[in-house]
Design goal:
transport, PTS_sugar-sp_permease, phosphotransferase system, membrane, sugar transport, globular
């Protein structure tokens, strides 16, 4: 039984397989010729593998940068990392997590078919992380066995359908009406950034319209500008670390000159970003046309909810601005936590890059440059305070040295943890009932069969 669960979890937590499966079903539903089914299925799979390879390059180069900052500036504390806390949790909650994942994905499809929340969540690894969080928090409250699996699976399936809908009107602005949605559990931070952009960014021009003189025109090349920014980050870290702990620099550089190491690492990071962009283009080229088969034949009006990195090409300059100001917000949040005696949450480079960049994109879509800067900065503050508040909830299960990094994990974990501590399992059922009402109510209030909020302002 465990072997079957592991096999299913390996498939369902792998977005490349999920995207390929969805594309295959859609193309078959459209009665596409066999050779086009093959190419249309492999396109999204290869595109996501390319995206994942680029993300792997990015993460591999962010790790040393985080170490340089910690050693160079003498910072010690907790670094939020989804992969780390999930790997720890799997040692004691492996079967529960896998079971919640499967139930959640099935319920997401059922909610998409029978409610107006027509969003199919395709970012499998984030579904896996959320399943892990739910198994940990609900387990700490006292849920066990089948009850734990079905309550956790309901929360996962419900939020997978609801979270893309909450900010779909912002997503349509980001994509200029493309039929995709946000399928990433940092979504509330992105929508908050977009809302802030609406409030502060009136008449602010887009980040993508930055006026650059001819001699600086090379900065319009996203790969080059990203490389320059990251090289600067690395050089600052290397200089600071050489002053405080030269041995750490030598270890990270692996025998290379530290400054050469900084330049190569920064430029390699930029290559990773370029690979991500190429993968995204492959995904969108094949997935969206194939998804029409799902949307017309199987789950009418369905909308694919995809990874946050898919949105990077829509505003490449906002990606860099969002990362920089989210990281700045994380630093200030860390200092505030230190001043009030809280746990130091060291800004994790991975969440601040991916979530901060996406917050910048959403802030830019509604409020231009001001929206990108302020929205991503506020996102960075939350990426400090939410993990710090979530830490005690996870600490009950022995995860005291690590915590989840993204916005939705923090909100969901804190909400369920605090409700469970205060009123026990009854409170959890009340939260589940509220989500059930949210799922059902739009279908009662209107006869429309369209996906909720999937309408452009012009319409």
């Amino acid at each position: 039984m465990n072997g079957i669960l592991t096999f299913l979890q390996n498939i369902l937590s792998e977005p490349a397989f999920l995207m390929g499966l969805i594309a295959f079903i859609g193309l078959v539903a459209l009665k596409t010729p066999g050779h086009k089914v093959l190419t249309g299925t492999l396109g999204p799979v290869l595109g996501y593998l390319m995206l994942a390879a680029g993300a792997g390059v990015i993460q591999a180069n962010l790790g040393p940068l985080a170490r340089l900052i910690e050693e160079g500036f003498g910072i010690t504390g907790v670094v939020p990392n989804n992969e780390a806390v999930t790997s720890v949790a799997q040692q004691i909650l492996g079967v529960e997590t896998m079971s919640i994942l499967i139930v959640g994905l099935v319920l997401n499809l059922l909610f998409a078919r029978f409610t107006r929340f027509k969003y199919i969540f395709l970012t499998g690894h984030h579904s896996f992380f959320m399943a892990c969080l739910l198994s940990a928090v609900l387990g700490a409250i006292g849920f066990k066995g089948v009850t734990l699996v079905f309550v956790g699976g309901f929360f996962l399936g419900a939020w997978s359908a609801i979270s893309p809908a909450i900010g779909q009107r912002y997503t349509l602005k980001v994509t200029d009406g493309d039929e995709i949605a946000m399928g990433h559990f940092g979504s509330l931070g992105y929508y908050l950034s977009a809302w802030i952009g609406e409030k502060v960014g009136k008449d602010s021009r887009s980040t993508e319209e930055l006026e650059i003189s001819e001699k600086w025109s090379f900065l319009r090349n996203t790969t080059i500008s990203t490389g320059i920014v990251m090289v600067a980050f690395y050089l600052v870290g290397v200089v600071a670390c050489l002053v405080r702990n030269p041995q750490a620099v030598q270890e990270l550089a692996g025998g290379k000159n530290p400054f050469i190491f900084a330049v190569i690492s920064g430029l390699t990071f930029a290559v990773g970003v370029s690979i991500v962009y190429s993968g995204v283009r492959m995904i969108l080229a094949d997935l969206i046309p194939a998804f029409q088969g799902i949307a017309t034949k199987i789950i009418p009006n369905a909308v694919p909810a995809v990874d946050c990195a898919v949105f990077f090409p829509y505003a490449p300059t906002a990606v860099i601005i969002g990362f920089a100001f989210s990281f700045l917000g994380g630093l200030i949040g860390m200092f505030i936590l230190g001043a009030i005696g809280g746990v130091l949450i060291i800004p994790g480079m991975v969440p601040h890059f991916f979530c901060g960049a996406t917050a910048g994109i959403y802030g830019n879509a509604t409020g231009g440059r001001k929206g990108a800067v302020i929205g991503s900065f506020v996102n960075g503050l939350f990426l400090a305070f939410l993990p710090a508040t979530l830490l005690p909830v996870l600490g009950q299960l022995g995860f005291a040295n690590t915590t989840f990094g993204d916005f939705d994990f923090g909100i969901f974990g804190i909400l369920l943890g605090r409700v469970g501590e205060s009123v026990g399992s009854v409170g959890i059922y009340v939260v589940a009932a509220v989500l059930a009402i949210v799922l059902i109510l739009p279908s009662i209030l209107t006869k429309s069969k369209e996906a909720l909020n999937n309408v452009t302002e012009e319409e």
